Inverse folding.
């Protein structure tokens, strides 16, 4: 059957919208969050349910079309979209059901975290996620999920109870601790390699008002603050989360005008407890190096989740590099200061997210996400609206990364990587790579799902890392 005949037949079985080049809405639908990505798929299948996804997989197989899976479209490497193939776009599968009695949350694969936060907050609950609410639930979860609640409740995958999936042959499967446990192990960190998740069932936690927000210091204080932070955050009560940032002050409220566009460092806190308790815990820092500015107050959790969304609207140019770290030595701090002083644009930044507390109490072979012994996940992000500045933001991020990488633990958080090749993926999964490759061979032997941080099926693996460090 010709491709055009195949598409006609597919349209007749499909409930959602099918878009081809030239169709109205095609250009908007192929756009992803990173404005630097410009790919032109042959077909975009906007799926409404599992039946649509099954039909799309069968259609792509019969026409030998490469497939990319799109959840929230936030992936910086643009892995939700492909050239000449089919985008299986899950955006219309967007529902959240909260069950307050079991404290569980069912989220469709097209949800963003703002959908989940909105629905759960009404019940005084939250699911651990990231720090930007427009990020997709699907991609963030499948890579691990690091954010404001990680120290207390673990990664997003540590709160995942089950997933419904469409597999590479178009069949349907549920994966949980009881059903297809090998698949469930693999999807908790293995990204989009094993199938298309239609829905996620999460455990939620009582999180309502948090004491949260940024504290900022001048770069002259950054070394002292970083040294204080490295001691504090590894021993702090797990109710307290704080990620460290090298940044430029945004040119708008709530920041005072005299600080606008000044390069500074900051810590963004999230405390689950009273303001009085938070102030007691943070008093030593405030008296050691008083912040030049702070916006720390009790707020509804979704407000914290959306706090930075306005700074990072869709369509900016993004390039990022990442690493895990077990320690933050004085020599590494010197390098941070050197490169923070060179921040190329005001939206560019470096974040160090704590990967400790509850995250470290899950074993490194308990889920596909292996770096349970990391202490920080670093991401260096070059961002700017102007494509003419892409070379500048990329060069800065690469230079910063090159300077810090020798101090790193070896791998990086999957969701903070560009397309960096198989060695980097193996370094990230370490001892789990062989098991992942075997599970890939079982569920996707011909690597149908390969527009991702790809784990190759066992038979075609060139070199499987056996060391766990
Ligand atoms: C501004 C910004 C802030 C971020 N902050 C955080 C953060 O705080 N914490 C954090 O952990 N991460 C964070 N991330 C990284 C984020 O987790 C990844 O970019 C992730 O890939 C986004 O998921 P998505 O569904 O939006 O991506 P998409 O681009 O839609 O998908 C990315 C990949 O995920 C896989 N995938 C997506 N949906 C499915 C599905 N339903 N089934 C199977 N595979 C699927 C596919 O392989 C796809 O190629 C951030 C990203 C950005 C751009």
């Amino acid at each position: 059957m010709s491709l055009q005949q195949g598409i006609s037949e597919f349209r007749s079985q499909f409930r959602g919208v099918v878009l081809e080049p030239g169709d109205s809405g095609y250009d908007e639908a192929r756009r992803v969050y990173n404005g630097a990505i410009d790919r032109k798929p042959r077909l975009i299948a906007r799926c409404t349910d599992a039946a649509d996804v099954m039909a799309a997989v069968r259609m792509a197989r019969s026409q030998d079309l490469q497939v990319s899976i799109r959840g929230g479209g936030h992936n910086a490497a643009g892995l939700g979209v492909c050239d000449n193939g089919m985008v299986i776009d899950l955006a219309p599968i967007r529902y959240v059901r909260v069950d307050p009695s079991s404290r569980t949350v069912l989220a469709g694969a097209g949800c963003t975290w703002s959908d989940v936060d909105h629905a759960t907050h009404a019940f005084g609950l939250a699911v651990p996620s990231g720090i930007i609410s427009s990020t997709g639930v699907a991609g963030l979860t499948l890579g691990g999920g690091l954010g404001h609640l990680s120290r207390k409740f673990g990664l997003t995958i540590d709160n995942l109870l089950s997933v419904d999936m469409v597999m590479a042959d178009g069949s349907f499967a549920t994966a949980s601790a009881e059903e297809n446990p090998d698949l469930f192990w693999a999807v908790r960190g293995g990204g989009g390699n094993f199938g298309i998740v239609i829905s996620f069932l999460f455990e939620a936690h009582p999180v309502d008002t948090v004491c949260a927000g940024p504290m900022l210091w001048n770069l002259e204080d950054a070394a002292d603050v970083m040294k204080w932070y490295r001691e504090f955050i590894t021993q702090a009560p797990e109710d307290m989360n704080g990620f460290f940032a090298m940044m430029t002050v945004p040119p708008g409220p709530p920041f005072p005008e005299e600080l606008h566009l000044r390069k500074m460092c900051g810590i963004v806190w999230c405390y689950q407890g009273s303001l009085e308790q938070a102030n007691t815990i943070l008093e030593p820092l405030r008296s050691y190096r008083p912040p030049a500015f702070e916006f720390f107050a009790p707020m509804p959790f979704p407000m914290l989740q959306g706090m930075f969304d306005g700074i990072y609207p869709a369509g900016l140019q993004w390039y990022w590099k990442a690493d895990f770290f077990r320690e933050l030595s004085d020599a590494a701090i010197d390098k941070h200061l050197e490169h923070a002083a060179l921040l190329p644009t005001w939206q560019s930044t470096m974040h160090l997210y704590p990967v400790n507390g509850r995250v470290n109490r899950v074993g490194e072979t308990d889920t596909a996400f292996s770096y349970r012994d990391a202490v920080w996940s670093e991401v260096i992000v070059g961002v700017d609206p102007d494509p003419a500045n892409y070379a500048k933001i990329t060069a800065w991020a690469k230079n910063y990364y090159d300077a810090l990488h020798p101090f790193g633990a070896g791998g990086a958080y999957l969701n903070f990587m560009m397309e960096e090749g198989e060695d980097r993926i193996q370094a990230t999964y370490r001892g789990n790579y062989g098991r992942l490759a075997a599970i890939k061979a079982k569920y996707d032997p011909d690597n149908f799902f390969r527009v991702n941080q790809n784990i190759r099926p066992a038979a075609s693996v060139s070199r499987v890392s056996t060391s766990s460090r």
